[in-house]
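Sorry, explain these tokens?

***
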Amino acid sequence: MKVETATLKDGKTKDFMMVSDPPSGTMKEVYFTPDRREVVCFYKDSQAGNDPARTQRLESIIGKYNPTLPRSQGGSAASDVDAAYYRNLFCWPTAIVTRPRFGLVTPTYPGNFFFQEGPCKGQEKNGAWFTLVKPRSILQRMAPKELGDWLNYLRLCIKMARAVARLHQAGLAHSDLSNNNVLVDPLNGASVVIDIDSLVVPGLYPPDVLGTKGYIAPEVLSTLSLPFRDPKRKHPSARTDEHALAVLFYQYLLQRHPLEGRSVPKANTAEEQDFLTYGPQALYSEHPQDKSNRPEAAKFVAASSLGPWLEELFQRAFVDGIKDANRRPTASEWLKGLVKTFDRTIPCPNANCFQKWFVLTDSAGARCPFCGTKSAQSVPVLRFRSEGRPGQWIQDGSVAVYHHLQLYKWHAFANLFPGPDSDLTPQAYIVWHGGQWLMINQNLTSLTSSMGNRVPPGQPVALTPGVRIRLSQEPNGRIAEVEMRQP
């Protein structure tokens, strides 16, 4: 191994370690810098640097479209805080390499996106390890702790939705969202979007790739045989990203592909079968009318077990969206639905439950759908209300309660939503103490009991059925009404 030097487009240089067998993907070879904090990626195509459109695309991605760089430094992030947040969600290119070959520089994936122990140690945490049945069972025998729990899968989906929403808000599309291009860390509930250099800018930079099998939108597959410039041919875009994103969420939360079930299209080859399954004959395995593609009952945990928001979004994605791409949920809609679902997630009382957490839905009792265990005690649900017109309080979200649950400002105030710049100071927490549920005020300055008494920081208020607690008397402050759910 020896250290060589790459020349960047701006005239600066970057040292990298030359090895005989570098990590390699479809389009690029990867070499670490000596401190291993960055990688120099060279395109395999020797003519890549001669394509002015590719160079212009990379310059725009590294500059004006870059959410990991504040506007004051030529990027698109609104602030340093915003830029720092999105640096954790993307592995964004930082420079173009001109010599010895055309390429780019990107940060190294954070260490938590590599396996830390067992036979997989050092390998990237490609999502396939955690969503496909066979690799998951193998990994469970190798390093069970790397699998995380269901709540962390929900967390990484939230971060993935926020990352893709940020791309789409800027008018960009990834074009190849898949298990290969989104690394995940279920142990910490983290995800990072990679392979940013082929972003699609509609009307300016066309797509370089079609996508990955199982994630390519049906309309793209179904029109693949048409000439590239045929107006009826569908190309990767934000709409096709939305299909791939929904597939990823379904896989992470339910451990199966939404279009794979009992129905197998008749075909002459495996390739033709895949084409029909994901393209012209795509059928949602939980289609409300056509149940021919339902998975085997023994392996079936329905999307309805994830609560009403995700069930509805999945139906829009794989029933309405299969027929009409414009009816698919946006990444921002997924973000809202996932956050609402997070607030209805509680621990499973079974210490041996593989998933550890489940969603407390309105249509079922407090029973874990993954292991069947019922809660041993009643579970409070805080039904939030916010003031519309003066004196008119409308339902505005909910939170399922568990021991040591923390409440934040976005729970107390109707005009706040968790995001990059949210205040993470806990405002109150919930405990099961002395045979009753209590809300302990921490930082709410005007928490008021149902009797109209102020509850100062450090003091509790009991959560009993039907009680109404004013979380804040300030503008946009919510009321929390306690509903007790029986086991």
